[in-house]
Task: structure prediction
Amino acid sequence: MQIGVLSEPSDRRVALVPDIIEQLISSNNQVYIESGAGVQSYISDELFEKAGAKVVSRQQVIDSSDLVISINPLPQETYSSLKGNATVISSFQPFNDDEVSKNLSNSGLTGFSMDMIPRITLAQAMDVLSSMASIAGYQAVLEAATHLPRYFPMLTTAAGTIPPAKVLIMGAGVAGLQAIATAKRLGGVVEAFDTRLAAKEEVESLGAKFVMVEGATDDKDAGGYAVEQTEEYKQRQQVLIQEKATKADVVITTAQLRGRPAPLLIKADTVKSMKPGAVIVDLASSTGGNCELTKDKQTIEEHGVTIIGSSDLAQQVPMHASQLYAKNILNFLKVLITEEGDLNLDFENEILKSSCIAHAGEDRYNLMLNS
Result:
């Protein structure tokens, strides 16, 4: 199999790293890397070549590859230039843009979307969403600490005692749990809110206090995303959030609805009531944000509160983010590619069936939605 990796125009990560490339090559694959693709992840062309990859121009990668791997969807003109029967692996997020599967099918390409892999036990090692969410949760706390005009830990000094920062984490999924762990390591006093009672044990095992509103809609089949709640529940939730947020120094929000705007958790009035100097880090900013005042990819100050809108914090840790993404890809390729180097397009396999959004001119994603 001829595998190609192109540079990411607006991302510091790279889809494959040298140790993963060595494993792919040992399995009788050839890997082509666009020159400079790993620079922002601190991986030189020389390291890729040492691993056995061929470092070539962008056009050579496009011309040579049967399988192209990326983190973000590539420009449409790139897909049009690939081999007619090529396969593309990326995080397409078709639930946010259903045109992407149409474009792939119209180009005669086969497309697999890493964010569509089912969150089942057999696929845990391929779960890109969890890998990146873990980094985002960690980085969110560091961003908050950088902007917070006070210490995180309690300090006892000759000049007096400084109390610890109060941190409220909204959502106890992968990102939220990592945020809890990181905030506790920095010495914060942490509370965590989640609609799922099942999250209580995990939250408390990390040393945080669990906060919950009774009567939430079950989300066990939502694949790690939040689910829409009833209006009655939202009203009770809003009262509790208002109470907790006004006492917090840091609020980190992580709730997203797949294919829909993020649920509004922190209203503008709540921000007005928060402590001067408090910080909100909104990890759902790309889908509208959990805070009413969030602006995606911007850090703003409103009513004395700093609001950081960022859904792509993982790329701020490009070395480890690239390593984790590449390992997820390797585990997926063990299912997708046979020992002989051929594609295993067995759509009876739940992982391949769920993640394939286009094949042989067929828009599989939209067909699945309409079936």
Q: What stands out?
A: The two ends are 33 Å apart (CA to CA). The chain has a mean pLDDT of 92. Residues 2-116+318-362 form a domain with the Rossmann fold fold (CATH 3.40.50.720). The first strand starts at residue 2 and ends at 5.
